[in-house]
Amino acid sequence: MRIRFSFIILLTITGGLFSCKKTLSPDVTSLVPEANMWQVKNDARSAVFATYGLLRAALANSNAFMAYGELRGGDFRISSRQDLNAVLSNNLNANYSALEEWKDWQRFYAVIAQANLCIEKLPLVSKNDFRYRAEDLKLDIANIRFLRALTYFYLARIWGDVPLITSNAAGYFEGKPATPQATILAFAANEAAAAAMDLPWRYDGTWPEQQGNYWNQNDDYWHSRVGTKASCYALLAHIGAWQQDFAMAEKYCREVMDNSGNGGYSVASTSQLTAEDGVFKGKGLDVIFSLSFSADYQEASVSGHVEDWTLSEPFVPKKTADIYVPKDSVLAIFDEPGDGRFSLNGDGTASGNYFTNFNNSAPMFSKIKVRAVVQSPVLRSYESAILIFRYEEIILLRAAAAIRINDVPHGRDYLNMIRTQRGLANFDSADGNEVLSYILKERRRELLGEGWRWFDLVQFKQIPVYTTLSQADVDNGAAFWPVSKSALTNNPTLIQNNFWKK
Description:
The chain is about 45% helix and about 5% strand. The chain is mainly alpha-helical. The longest helix is centred in the first third of the chain and has 26 residues, at about 135-160. The two termini are about 25 Å apart.
């Protein structure tokens, strides 16, 4: 696979972080000859935010973040699309174009290639343009290292063992063998820790790591859109959990929570969670890091959003949603009275905005509904952000980590922080296993539709309980995605994941 990029230029450099939907597929025609790059300060800006744009492309492509993180978990059912049904049924070798795209890790390695290039070439800008200060370079490199760490974390969770490429010179990797997942995770942890050292809690110009305005924009503009200490610590917490190092996971969740005032984070109200202009615009105070699709900067699009699969009339002109949560599943997930997200009243009516038309055979999942155009005629155009980390998820991650290091009282307290915010009574059990099962249940409710469910089943070792895969399947590599045919063809040193060889 040849994915060495000299530079990806964005179409809307002066307006926002990312270009419009055209960047959802990296366009080799927009490559700029390297001899003309790395000369002036704006070259650095373009290169850094191209990396953000490429990560958004990798996760937004055909709703990849939902395919990887949600569909295989089994909460959603498919109305008619057989390619989505193949993912739900763990038939990932089925012959559908979307599956071939999701199996191909090229878009993720485009992010890696651009990050490696930035780390090597950004120092040239500081030599060629005195306006690009040493502190600017340091902050940009930290952002890039955060992105590289996050990208490798996705690669390791989705495919397991993957090639580790850390230099621009190694951009061609036809002969590069896969590196063990444990090594990939360790590398990502080191990168995230290094990035955290040089990133501020927020971009308000009051931190030693960042003075004045970052790239001429204020803190409100950058909130959740770029790397911070909190986003690095959230990543480190998840890496720790994936490594089964729950002391590490608890430590970094604690860093985020203890510094919530520094980062400006708080638990969102349930109304904010489901509002059209709330959390999923990416600007909520609970959002730690997201990938933006702001209509203000012409980023809104049809594809790359959960709404493209979940919404139908009356929100958008579409008769039937592609995916839905069946009524019996909704009632099994939301089985406690008073839940502000969804609950069934005594008279049989439904409360909460997670679902619309609950009495239909296929209730519409309407928790996330950030439409770019709401006036008549309604168009299918969305601007919901892809939320990578939000505060409530970190609280629940800390709850699970606390239980696993035998701190049941604090684990229960963190669980109840979310439960009480959503209108549920405190959970009082002192049984660690029971509390842990309720943490998984609460993650299921709170994070539904956000791309966490499958990874949670892997992390909590519950795949055989909630899917048709057996423990033997999991032990044989079924939790990972198969490596694409193109990657195997172009790199003979790669080996297909065991489960998918059949």
